[in-house]
Fold this sequence. Notes:
About 35% of the residues lie in helices and about 20% in strands. By secondary structure, it is α/β, with parallel strands linked by helices. Flavin-adenine dinucleotide binds near residues 11, 356, 420, 422 and 428.
Amino acid sequence: MKYDVIIAGSGLGGLLCGYMLAKEGLRICILEKNHKAGGCLQTFHRTGVVFDTGVHYFGGMDPGQTLYRYWNYFGLTRTLALERMNPDGFDIIGINGQDYPMAMGFDHFVERLLPFFPSKKENLEKYMRCLKEISSSFPMYNLELPKDHNEENFRGRSAYDFFTELSPGLLSSVLAGNNMIYAGNRETTPLHLPGLINHSFISSAWRTVGGTSQIASNLTDGIVSNGGEIMLFEEITEIRLNGDTFDVMTEAGRSYSADKLISGIHPSKTLKMMEPSIFRKSFFKRITNLKNTVSSFAVYIVLKERSFRYLDHNYYYHPTEDVWKGNQIAEWPSGYMLHTPAPAAEDGFAKSLILLTSMPFEKVKKWEHTYRGYRTQDYLDFKEQCTAELLEMAEVRFPGLRSAILFSEASSPLTWRDYTGIPEGSMYGVERDYKEPLATTLLPATRVPGLYFTGQNINLHGVLGVTISAVLTCGEILGLEYLLSRVRNA
Length: 490
Ligand SMILES: Cc1cc2nc3c(=O)[nH]c(=O)nc-3n(C[C@H](O)[C@H](O)[C@H](O)COP(=O)(O)OP(=O)(O)OC[C@H]3O[C@@H](n4cnc5c(N)ncnc54)[C@H](O)[C@@H]3O)c2cc1C
């Protein structure tokens, strides 16, 4: 079996690359270790209720906005069932018992926060100007070729310093209150992460109706109808470079060959599956030593009928003004995000609810040698204890939540590690560090001819970041100018 391109992993990045290359007539094959395509887009069902795992909302899906323009090329603007979140507050930030809305629309965002911060109009307006400046400095965010740009100005600045300088005190905490969506921390987070992500949400914020796996299945259909292949249950164990050909070996003992290889698997894992001598020592060392963003702990809850109102926004809860504690281990949980998946029941109540919080891998390290289906009782007890602690915190703002639960199940960093293969179950892969922007920014092309990376570890995580990365990766093969014009004119 010889292909033009083998794609390792069928996460959003792998699927988007497969779609573009198959559409452009290349013979492609995607190899995926799990029984379903989609990676973090996968959903699961409990008592007939669908739960998203790794994508709860995304921005920029109004016609003409960034994600809409990209996804139009992939046919996703015509096929996805989406719900626009509450324009008056798609994210509500709860701090010290008070709720603050993050609204859609740049003027509206300011208007909605002004009653809480009447003396901070200038700060809020400055924030909106900064978001626009950041987004216009990233050509690919605007579907333009990356040249003469100022991206580095923002990759090399601290997000924490930015928010604190913008307005010290409570307002800075509110503006950074959804920082779990970019694993924000004081020590490393660069400004471009909240800059691009919040710009896209404020432009317009959306959730899927019926689960994010529809994104994966729509892309899969497009790939197959263009002659591409997706092999499930094919865990890659080794990648050999034989002359100009990549030979990819799987756990099942099969072998696939191609002229080119795109890896949507974490870059350090990709390199460890290859012969180290084909890489420069410094590159191998840099990539295999990259730090990853914090992992997560989630509780998936099926609710009793008519017990909890559907929320058309996400709720981010912080017990204190210090919203930058997600990667610390001492005070767990340091806060949470609460989300009621769409659709609501017809009577306006929620059918299910997800509580999500950060969790450093150290919390589960003692069980790192156990795997899915073979965990020990003390690990299961630990998960139960964490669930109880998280619910206790949620009960403060949502009294009665515990008694609304029909069924619940939790995921930990180990669940994520085993499910997506991401080291330590990291939420968003490689951690970008504003102090080392070059060393922590990965490019899609490597010095090994024919070997490319894609996915959240390139450029930016999240559905928007992964989409841009996929276009950058395939642009290396098809020509970026050509590909961007195809996307723009779709
Ligand atoms: C808890 C959580 C919440 C999130 N919430 C949001 C959100 O609300 N909005 C948003 O935009 N983003 C969100 N994200 C981020 C977003 O889900 C990811 O950035 C994005 O989906 C990553 O896509 P990817 O293709 O890079 O990687 P992945 O989805 O991780 O795909 C990698 C694929 O490779 C496969 N694989 C791994 N190893 C092998 C192997 N050896 N052989 C074969 N296949 C292999 C995996 O099974 C997987 O399918 C969230 C992430 C998490 C974890």
